[in-house]
Amino acid sequence: MTHMAIRGSMGLLVLAAVASTSWSGATPAHPPDAVAKLSYDGTATSCRSIAEAALPAARQGNILALCIARQAWLAAGDDHRLDRLPYSLEKDVGKEALATWQKMINDKAAKGDTFYLNVLGTQYLFGYNVPKDEARGMKVWEDLAAKGDGFASQKLAALIHTSGDHAPERIKRMLAYEEKAAEKGMPGAIYNLGCYYYEGRYLERDYKKAFDYFSKAAAAGHAVAARNLGICYLQGQGVQTNSARAQMWFERAEDAGDDGAISWLNEHFPPVTIRTHGDDD
Fold first, then answer.
1. Which residue, 2, 3, 5, 50, is CA-closest to 217?
2. Rounded Cα distance, 38 and 51, in Å
């Protein structure tokens, strides 16, 4: 039985949780306005650019920048990069600071800034720093998705998948959102479609299509998709068996932060010293 890494993070954008303890440092400045205006077009590439732009401010203690960087990396399918964020800063920096940042989000969203609309939709859906209002949050995401926003499309697909309500009409909607997000280059959505084809879940099993989707997701930096490519090459699913390529993709997955690739490497391409989690080699 194949133990493929199926259905990793859906890229569901979730704001950093706000803890009750206070951060002891000085109140940091707002992140540069350029963070949210950095060529955002709903694609994975622009998500990564936003994350990189927000990172310096996040490391200096800016909670909003931390939230932005975290969201952008999740949206791009770069979950393995989250360890670069200072989680110790995910704390309450004071009501006044939070209110100031919330006003900034609200003002930009009111002006139609699509990045901050995504942030606000997430806040309303989960009740982060605003009163929880699922209907309002969903409306924000649905409006953005209708305009071709990759962030929102991917999040809506994730919500349907995790809801437990998999009626045929809802699955049809979920797949439509996944495809829209995939068209925008969202690695998480591309990866998920590959999983569906591989498993024969929601879509008719087709190893060739699964391989093609995993290839696209891996090329876009999705670590688990790289591992799945290794499995396909190892087992000849959707592609001719090729042990050298299988090893290459397992190693790329490991280098990208996918710990699951280690067991495949140890079992099929054992080194002199068995790999363990946290090894540098």
1. 5
2. 10
What pLDDT was estimated at residue 90?
41
The Cα–Cα gap between 141 and 232 comes to 35
Contact 195, 222 (CB under 8 A): no
The C-alpha atoms of residue 58 and residue 52 are separated, in whole angstroms, by: 10
Which amino acid does the sequence have at 234? L
Which residue reads 């349907």 in tokens?
A: 160
Give the pair of three-digit tokens for residue 192: 């998920």
**Which residues, in sequence order, are bridge partners of residue 91?**
19
Distance CA 119, CA 166 (A): 27
Two structure tokens written together for 219: 């090329």
Question: What is the CB neighbour count within 10 angstroms for residue 236?
Answer: 12
Residue 107, helix vs strand vs coil: helix
d(CA 121, CA 152) in angstroms, rounded, equals 9
Maximum distance among all Cα pairs of the chain, rounded to whole angstroms: 60
Asked if pLDDT for residue 44 goes beyond 70, the answer is no
pLDDT for 75 equals 65
Q: What is the pLDDT of residue 21?
A: 25
In 48-206, at which residue ranges do the beta strands (DSSP E only) sit?
91-92
pTM: 0.72
CA distance 154 to 43: 11
In terms of phi and psi (left: phi > 0; alpha: psi -120 to 50; beta: otherwise), the region of 142 is: alpha
Q: Is 20 helix (H, G, I), strand (E, B) or coil?
A: strand
Q: How many CA atoms lie within 13 A of 255 on its CB side?
A: 9
Say which amino acid occupies 19. A
Residue type for 71, please?
Answer: Q
228 contacts 198 by C-beta, under 8 angstroms:
yes
Burial track 137-160 (b if 16+ CB lie within 10 A, e otherwise): bbebbeebbeeebbbbbbbbbbbb
